[in-house]
Amino acid sequence: MKTPALFLLLTSALTAATLAEVKLPALISDNMVLQQDLPANVWGLAGAGEKVSVKFADKTAEATADAKGKWSVKLTELASGAIGDLTIAGTNTLSIKNVAVGEVWVCSGQSNMEFTVNGALNAKDEIAGANFPLLRHFTVLKTQQKEPQEDCKGKWEVCSPQTVVGFTAVGYFFGRQLQQNLKVPVGLIHSSWGGTAAEQWTPAPVLNADPDFKPIVAAWEKVVADYPAAKAKYDQDVLAWREAEKAAKDAGTTPPRQPNAPRGGDAIGSPSGLYNGMIVPLLPYTIRGVTWYQGESNAGAATLYRKLFPTMIQSWRAAWHEPDAAFLFVQLANFMQRHDEPTDTNWARLREAQTMALQLPHTGMALAIDVGDAADIHPKDKQAVGKRLALAAEATVYYRDVEYSGPMFGGAQMEGEKVRLTFRNAEGMKAADGGKIKGFAIAGADRKFVWADAEIAGDHVIISSPEVKAPASVRYAWADNPECNLINAAGLPASPFRTDDWPMGPAK
Asked: Facing residues of 63 across strands?
């Protein structure tokens, strides 16, 4: 009769011992990279009140787990480039192998960041040459969650021809250049999901607190409210589909498509769902900055993106407790049909909204206006994009003497029938193909744009057209897939811009 009580006693003791063991999040694992020059955070779980020590090389830090078993320490003054084992000891001892000290970057966004090396330009040769043991990559397993999560799933991988095929291509080419030029280990934490909008990567309290974002929140609330009825209809549709499928198979005809399940029953597609599941678990990790490639899914709401995107950036910096964390992003590539005449499009305006985010400090933008694919929203030339992001990092984060930006519009001065445009980063401006400068359009007060003649004069470009006697506005590369060729001496393309603030007509 005492056996059950004894069994329960032993079980309770075993459970308590198990709970007291030091446990680590997925990011604290073999092959990880610790951020140099900043206090590198290491964290995990243990028994309440348990003392935990963390040792790397000659550095040791200690902590005591709180009432919930959470603990964290910061390793300071780590030697740049150091490689060794990280030892974490409480009631048990864990050894994290092959840990390196260097630079850590998060790579996030939608499908063009998710795009892997095995699909990139010259993939076969790139993969064969990817022997960079000081470059490490962690892919966060996709998940969307209603509430913020404390951990994610994934593992660190050392860059090799065997592992690189699944790395984010933009992130890889970015990280490879940094690793080779800075001569330190580089860690890439890849957290992206194709087809997603910026609001899905933004904290819920931030969206809820701003009236401008109320339509985003309200739209999802309606989806959730409509879900029970939509689910009931879906269940009926599935039953009917199964009968139709069976009948089609019996008749030897093509079966109908299966109905799509409605949204609203979980966090898939929800505002903040990706932030909760794929960013919050990364927040304790000490990083240098973020690279971001996204915007396609927000192109239909470019005006709102002017506020949403910088709001998201600032919310991440606040959540990471790093107000100066670098945030480098990719402007949308050229894509879709090329127009014979000047036009106005959602993609052009989204690029403008992205450019406006440069008003935030510690930001940088890599252009892709010349390396896109008219027929493919996922251009394969991720090398150029990664290189341009790396140049931005080298110049603005690591203070290397490199040109990192193409010509950027600085101002316009009307001079009779001509417009004088001033540019920054303008040294050696020229046409990329050696011919005439293309991509400029000019309009008078009637707002009817025509193609313009462009003449380079130092860091100025003089714009005119015999069809416009009293210019009111100039635009450059203002289209989905513009024909444009202005570059500087570094071969970097000029950013699209306009001198007006005229509203857009019907969406194109």
From this structure: 52
